[in-house]
Amino acid sequence: DLQICQHRAPTCCTKKMEESYQAAVRRERTQSIQALNFELKYMIVGHMTAFQEAFESLLRFAENHTSSLFETAYRPMAKEAAEPVKELFTDISLYILGAETTVESAVLRFFDSLFPLVYSRLINPGITDLSEDYTECLRLTRQDINPFGRYSKNMVTELSKSLWASRMLSQALSLGIEVINSTEHAALTKECSRALVKMQYCPHCQGLTLIRPCVGYCLNVMRGCLASVAELDAQWREFISTLEYLTSEMAVSHELEMALSGIWSSINEAILHAQLNGPQLSATVDKVCGQPKQQEGNLSSASIVPVKEVTETQTFVMAHSSLNNKRREFISYMKRSRTFYASIAERLCDGDLVMRDSSTCWNGEDVV
């Protein structure tokens, strides 16, 4: 009653043993594909982690740099500005990780929160009553009167341009892992599991436990079994080309690092612009939001403190260098994996599975 290992000679197999063999080949094939995928997946996950760590390091540097701007040049509002600054950098981090948000919404939300502080602490430092309604009116007015001039829009443009490649790379790496995971659990067809049993276990039914499949026979069986996985070849090559493009975009331009380190400078310029136009802004705000309560003998506007650009610190240089090195290592490895799906049958027939350098092997019917 054998269905797969039918042979003219006497046999020691039963139908139940054939069923066990089918379960064994399914398990072994999954394990062998997982083993092949492991190195590739390990590299992608490792790069995602390294990229994220280096990026977070740059982000922390830029955030600290921005916070110190408020503490040194705009002390009257430093404490209240801490939360909007933190939110801005959190939003940027989430954007890179693929969250449904935009750089523009993050930057404009920051400037919406900043304007009430600049207006009440720097332009009109005598204001004592900053109610929720008045603060909200200032936030909404910011969008119409554009107190920060071109600097808020410039910041959106610079960051959007520099962060998109990082966001795309992050999403592409996640997609790569999804593809690899899906190949690990590709179900074997009934025909395939029967062919694998015939190749690997039917010799056992005749007591030939040491004979292994012939190389050509193994390749034919594996190519048939993995035809659907091999179809990924063209898309995988395209995926590697896309990764190359994204990493070279990031490496050549250095825009990510420069844009992040320049955030504090853009904010500084924006605040200076608002202070210089203080009287006109006050006149417009009074018409729209009304006049808030002020201390007697209205204090003079806070003095404008221009801040000179600080030279880049060692931390930033190290994070920048680390990011570039990781990119180079990673893309070099990924280029080598370009033929991964085209050669998967050859790799599975390599090693212990087949008989090499021997005069005898199993061809599916007999020892030859």
Describe this structure in words.
Keywords: Cell membrane, Glycoprotein, GPI-anchor, Heparan sulfate, Lipoprotein, Membrane, Proteoglycan, Signal. This is GPC5 protein. It is a single chain. The protein has 368 residues and is mainly alpha-helical. It has one domain. It contains 14 helices and no strands. The chain is rod-shaped and about 105 Å long.
Mean pLDDT: 84
Question: Overall 3D geometry?
Answer: rod-shaped
Largest sheet: none
Structural class: mainly alpha
**Ends: how far apart?**
26 Å
Percent strand equals: under 5%
The parts where pLDDT drops under 50 for at least 5 residues are 296-303, 308-312
**What is the count of DSSP helices, taking H or I runs of 4+ residues?**
14
**Could you give the count of β-strands?**
0
Number of domains: 1
SSE run: HHHHHHHHHHHHHH
* Rounded radius of gyration (Å): 33 Å
Bin the helical content: over 70%
Subcellular location: Cell membrane
Keywords: Cell membrane, Glycoprotein, GPI-anchor, Heparan sulfate, Lipoprotein, Membrane, Proteoglycan, Signal
GO cellular component, one term: cell surface
InterPro entries: Glypican, Glypican_CS
Layout of helices and strands, plus pairs?
Layout: H1 15-73, H2 75-96, H3 103-123, H4 132-145, H5 150-184, H6 190-200, H7 215-225, H8 227-230, H9 233-253, H10 255-261, H11 263-276, H12 278-289, H13 314-336, H14 344-348
Helix pairs in contact: 1-2, 1-5, 1-6, 1-11, 1-13, 2-3, 3-4, 3-5, 4-12, 5-9, 5-10, 5-11, 6-7, 9-13
